[in-house]
Amino acid sequence: MTAEREPLYLRRRQGFSHWVRSGEPMVWFNAGAVSFALLAVFGLLWLLAWHGLGHFWPRELLQFSVNSETRQITVLGEQVSSERVSAEQLRGAGIASQAEGGWEWRRLIKRGNRDFFGTDFIWLLDSRVLEVSRPSGVMRVERLEWGNLYGRLLWLEQDGKVITDADADADADADGVWALFQGLIAANRSVRDEIRALEREEVGGINFAMERLRLRERGLVLDGEPVPAELARQRAMLESQYEGARRRLLALYQQSERYSYRVRLADGREVTLPLGQVVRAILPNDMGPLAKLNYYRLRLWEFLSDEPREANTEGGVYPAIFGTVLMVLLMSIIVTPFGVLAAVFLHEVAGQGRITRVFRAAVNNLAGVPSIVYGIFGLGFFVYGVGGEMDRLFFPEALPSPTYGTPGLMWASLTLALLTLPVVIVATEEGLARIPQSIREGSLALGATRAETLWRVVLPMASPAMMTGVILAVARAAGEVAPLMLVGVVKLAPTLPLDGNFPYLHLEQKFMHLGFHIYDVGFQSPNIEAARPLVYATALLLVLIIALLNLAAVALRNRLRERYAALDGS
User: Fold this and answer.
1) What predicted TM-score, i.e. pTM, was given to this entire model?
2) Which residues, 6 or more positions from 526, have their beta carbon under 8 angstroms from its beta carbon?
3) Hey, which of 27, 154, 379, 464 would disulfide with 262, CB 3.0 to 4.6 Å?
4) Topology (CATH) of 322-512
5) What does the domain layout of the chain look like in residue ranges?
């Protein structure tokens, strides 16, 4: 039967079989899988950016007249979200619903003023909202404690006496009061920065020196040696410096407490609050686009450069950024040489016998051990074992207070280095296996020793594979949380592990980590609605930091690959 006379279904079946055998379906399948993966990644990043970065944009303040069950109330705040709920849900919560059709819309309003209303957020049913307005002249005040304050500025006070009154002559005086209010906030911010610098640098340095002096004196006593008079003179000098710093601090605190401001809240109450607790104040309903953009820039920079406050629901995450990057760098410095040496031994030195195969299988199996197991091992072996023994040998004068026998930065880095060691070993060994044997034989034929061949030829050619292992190790270690909770991470670290006091890098100190910060803010925060946007923002930041660390390692790997591509032949 000729091809022209073959039935149509046979020609179609043969054409389909030829198309399958050509491999084109797998090309389309792989392209679709890659596209789906990219869409998932960019979708995740968009979700994190939308919910996280949008938190820093100044929302308008809305005023709601609400008919409650007993009386009419006024609510002033930011609308965070809205949702549709059923009448059954409302009745189950003990709320009488007036909606028709069994469904009703409700709004989540951030009304702030937690020190006066008890909660930051309130749900309002649309059926009970009588009027919604956008008043002018209402302010949003960010405070060091008690969250945001919403209200209308009335006047300012100095030492309990009124210095300006916004109700005296309407608009002109109101603008003057607001300008003075902003000037006092800036002045108090400078005082607060001076207090922080004095406490951390000067007072912190004095306390550090006094503690070292105390330990030195106790060490002499334990050794049975007399305490020299020079130590007493040094102590007296440090105490004199501390007293001078304490007096300056007291004067600064008194200066920050001189001013206060009077505010009228949404419910009509008038309250007087200390101006020293104000971080910044804005009039969101009266701001133009450029002013809002500048405010957004300030809030975003504060998030990246400041410390957390209000149980980690306000402020920034700089200590967590610093701790995460420092721990990853230390982990990379520790794991790289050990992983490379182990891979070189397994592939270049040890014979390929049964014992080597057992070791290689053990390394591969270690990669699948849950991370919390490494955390328990690190706590028992590194912290209590090695750290406790170091305290007994090198820091007996500090006992019973532990120095290294407690979770800290060094033990966290070592634990994560142990966790990621199999990844580096496997990647490096695969790179060594790809190097042709003729390269080694040629080097030996030219008179190089086996050690010189390994150091000057084999390892440089395997360096791209080593960097691949480091990239995978960084990607895993930066996002780990479970083991770190046991070996060094804390909710809030008052000082950074890197400062101006010798030895400058304090490996025994506890630190903050972005992964644990996400867990703490998302699951341990007492104010979950206020913390939710920061969870998204911190998660986005962690993803970006991991991406930057990986991109730096990838760039270095590519340079090494280009350098040795000619020798590799691949």
Assistant:
1) 0.88
2) 311
3) 154
4) MetI-like fold (1.10.3720)
5) 62-138, 149-295, 322-512
